[in-house]
Design brief:
heterodimer; A: alpha/beta; six-stranded mixed beta sheet; 8 helices; about 20% helix; globular; B: about 350 residues; alpha/beta; Rossmann fold; 2 domains; four-stranded mixed beta sheet; 11 helices; 13 strands; about 35% helix
């Protein structure tokens, strides 16, 4: 399967009379956007459109999802299949990407799990989304909707907005084009006989409301571990329905730009052969954990792998899934590297994971999510700052008298991402 | 800057009082440097001065722990040094435990920078490595020179409040403290590099060495359920509606204790969950799903259990540090014991 990503660089976002992309500026026709969203989602009552650019003194919270606007230009299939687009196979052909732009969804809190994105100051160093030209959508939903309905309405509306914003890119000439290709199994073996066969096992959060992930629209709780082409991820085959403890949850943007996929492709054909992606879930029932980890190990063996990278999503309960996966695959003689993050307490002195095994001897960490950061007051808040007292990583002391915040890193969207999206890590003292 | 004033702690042997036969001498305070204090002073040059020395018998310290600690802390308070150094203790077990105990107490209770040094097998290392920097030494006093040379630069940094680098760079035992920093490469690139090394059989360094976990033996079963008082304790975050004590949705800093008097059934009107780590909808619809008060009341009425304890204890076990969980648990256990509770049902999420 072969996909061309046509990158269109976006360096500014503006509200415009009509939707357009010109000289790197994304012009948003907010009336048309709002009308499109209201028309497609009856549970939505109102949408406010805000803009937030890198370096601006803006704090956004409670952030639910971040999505990169993309559009497929030469096929009937569209991005985000099975959710807001037809269930057609994606991952081949050409997709145009508005690199540097994103949709950020916010709205009245659904759980306690949403995150914070600061566009400047120390908080901006911890979230990749401070570097993007963000179209922030503040959703107002019908009163009295059950929490699961609220979550779904917000999730779908964000995806629709990202598709809508990318429409002007359909006929544009991209600034650059990169091609990604995964060969059928036997062809890969013939083409790269001497390179180690490496795959990627991506664990998808699937613990319930605000902890869910969808694969072609299927709730990941209900999947058995399976194979997926890395390019399918780039077309939004996997989307996020979770932001619980926002630091280490994968937004849809993370899935579209999965860094493990990118870095394996970077060495593909040179130092390794990137065989493909296995996806698995992180269900709360022990039987599911055992079944899914057994299955992942079977697939790893079936693919005759020489090595595998395993990325976790979340912490605590999924630490068990992570260790089961690593232990069972190592037991087959296939070397593993796991990517996780840590909850070592605010003083960094407690044990970091809820499970451990000596065979998981190669660990990459995205940092200690319990570390406290002080975020200075910023000029403008998009959303509702009072949520910081209740979101994961906040406390009743989080909102300080001078308007600054005292929160754990876990409150910052993407701060300790376990796909290895960021550079934050931890060392032992 | 004025000279850093150092108070040095040594045992009866290094203090020149005597060997094992003098190990029961109580602590005494001397002016100036004694024994290994000479070498330490030499390494300090003009940067710091060993102003006093405390000498204490190893048996005295370990057999009269509370009293010895109190006496020595009082001496430290009186001298009020800028820096406290204990040892080096090398492989002398009781001496090492004394050095580490008192240095940790000086650091924690008086807020004075404190350091010690010993051999890796000295039991003082495992007991106190988390609390303070313990510099690595050889296993006998033959390694005094190296021990002092490693100890002194780190001691000066601590006294001056300068940045302490990692255990490798500074020569102390890893304390297990996890500190964040930004690496050169993003995590995924580090993972790919690490995997390629691992596949080739080359050396690689994990970023998180796997710990060995504590295992707790299950308690003995109850002999007679029908007369037992059973308590409910949960990390599933069930709290009275409105979360009156503001227990955090993640990394809880506290637990709540609430009455069950008059409750036969928890409802969405009376209780909810404060937990931010699972789908709260079903727990909020019926909090008995996490804290099974209804079932226990039925069993109480049917005489299957003696009674349900009239208080429940609750916290949020979501990203909550093990150190906090341990602290909550020991306090809750104490309260349950004094209330005469026979058994506890612990529920999670």
């Amino acid at each position: 399967m072969r996909l061309e990503l046509g990158i269109i660089n976006i360096t500014d976002v503006q509200l415009g009379p009509s939707a357009a992309i010109k000289d790197g500026t994304l012009y948003v026709d907010s009336d048309a956007l709002v009308a499109h969203l209201l028309e497609n989602e009856e549970r939505l009552v109102d949408v406010k459109v805000h803009l937030a650019r890198p370096g601006e003194s803006v704090r956004i919270t409670p952030v639910k999802d971040v999505i990169e606007p993309r559009i497929k230009v030469d096929s009937e299939a569209e991005v985000f299949p099975g959710t807001v687009s037809k269930v057609l196979p994606v991952g081949s052909g050409r997709t145009h990407v508005l690199r540097g732009a994103a949709v950020v969804t916010i709205g009245k809190i659904v759980g306690f799990q949403e995150g914070i994105v600061d566009m400047c100051g120390p908080g901006a160093d911890y979230t990749p989304f401070s570097q993007l030209n963000n179209v922030v959508l503040e959703f107002v939903l019908q009163e009295g909707l059950p929490a699961h309905d609220r979550e779904q309405a917000l999730r779908f509306s964000g995806l629709r907005a990202a598709k809508f914003l990318a429409e002007p890119a359909k006929d544009m000439e991209p600034d650059e084009i990169t091609t990604y290709e995964t060969l059928p199994l036997m062809e890969g073996v013939k083409r790269y006989p001497d390179l180690p066969r490496v795959a990627y096992l991506q664990m998808l959060q699937s613990q319930g409301l605000l902890h869910d992930t969808y694969v072609y629209g299927v709730d990941a709780k209900q999947i058995l571990p399976t194979l997926i082409h890395p390019t399918e991820l780039m077309d939004g085959a996997i989307i996020s329905g979770n932001c619980v403890s926002a630091c280490d949850k994968n937004t849809t943007y993370h899935h579209q730009n999965n860094p493990v996929v990118a870095d394996l492709f970077a060495k593909h054909g040179e130092e390794l052969q990137f065989v493909g992606v296995i996806i698995t879930n992180e269900n709360v029932f022990l039987d599911d954990k055992i079944r899914s980890s057994d299955w992942s190990a079977k697939l790893a063996e079936y693919l005759s792998l020489d090595g595998i990278i395993i990325s976790q999503e979340g912490f605590g309960n999924p630490d068990t899934d992570l260790i089961l996966n690593a232990k069972k695959i190592e037991a087959l003689g296939i070397p593993t590297v796991i990517i996780t993050d840590e909850y070592a307490g605010t003083d960094g002195a407690s044990q970091s994971l809820a499970d451990a095994d000596p065979s998981a001897d190669a660990v990459v960490t995205g940092g200690n999510a319990n570390e406290i950061v002080i975020l200075p007051k910023l000029d403008r808040v998009i959303g509702d700052i009072n949520v910081v007292t209740v979101i994961a990583g906040g406390s009743d002391k989080a909102l300080r008298e001078d308007g600054s915040l005292e929160v754990e890193l876990q409150a910052i969207t993407g701060a300790t991402n376990e796909l290895g999206f960021g550079k934050l890590t931890t060392k032992g003292y | 800057m004025s000279k850093i004033r150092v108070l040095h702690y040594i045992n009866q042997f290094f203090g020149g009082i005597g060997g094992e036969e003098k190990a029961d001498v109580p602590p005494s305070l001397r002016e100036g440097k004694v024994g290994p204090g000479m070498a330490i002073q030499g390494a300090f040059r003009d940067e710091a001065e060993v102003v006093s020395t405390i000498i204490c018998g190893d048996s005295y310290f370990n057999e009269n722990l509370d009293e010895a600690k109190a006496q020595i802390l009082q001496m430290v308070k009186d001298v009020n040094p800028d820096l406290f150094i204990a040892g080096p203790a090398f492989n002398a077990g009781r001496y090492g435990v004394a050095c580490a105990t008192i240095a940790a107490a000086v650091k924690e209770e008086l807020g004075i920078p404190a350091i010690t040094a010993m051999y890796e097998e000295n039991p003082g290392v495992d007991l106190f490595r988390k609390q303070l920097e313990i510099v690595k030494t050889a296993n006998s006093a033959a390694g005094m020179r190296d021990a002092v040379n490693n100890l002194v630069p780190l001691a000066l940094k601590l006294a001056r409040g300068e940045e302490v680098l990692g255990p490798e760079e500074e020569g102390y035992f890893p304390r297990g403290i996890r500190v964040n920093y930004f690496a050169e490469e993003r995590g995924s690139a580090r993972a790919v590099d690490m995997l390629l090394k691992k596949i080739k059989g080359e050396d690689f360094e994990t970023e998180y060495p796997m710990p060995v976990f504590d295992r707790v033996d299950p308690a003995a079963p109850l002999k007679d359920l029908a007369s037992a008082t059973i308590a409910l304790v949960t990390s599933g975050g069930i709290v009275p509606k409105g979360n009156p004590d503001h227990i955090e949705s993640s990394n809880a800093s506290k637990y709540g204790s609430y009455s069950l008097e008059g409750f036969n059934d928890l409802t969405s009107e009376t209780h909810e969950t404060a937990h931010g780590g699972y789908d709260p909808v079903y727990a909020n619809q019926d909090p008995d799903r996490v804290l099974p008060v209804d079932v226990l009341r039925e069993m109480e009425a049917a005489g299957e259990i003696g009674k349900l304890h009239n208080m429940f204890y609750t916290t949020v076990g979501n990203g909550t540090a093990v150190a906090s969980a341990k602290k909550f648990a020991s306090e809750i256990a104490q309260k349950l014991l004094s209330a005469g509770v026979d058994a506890v049902i612990l529920t999670s999420t």
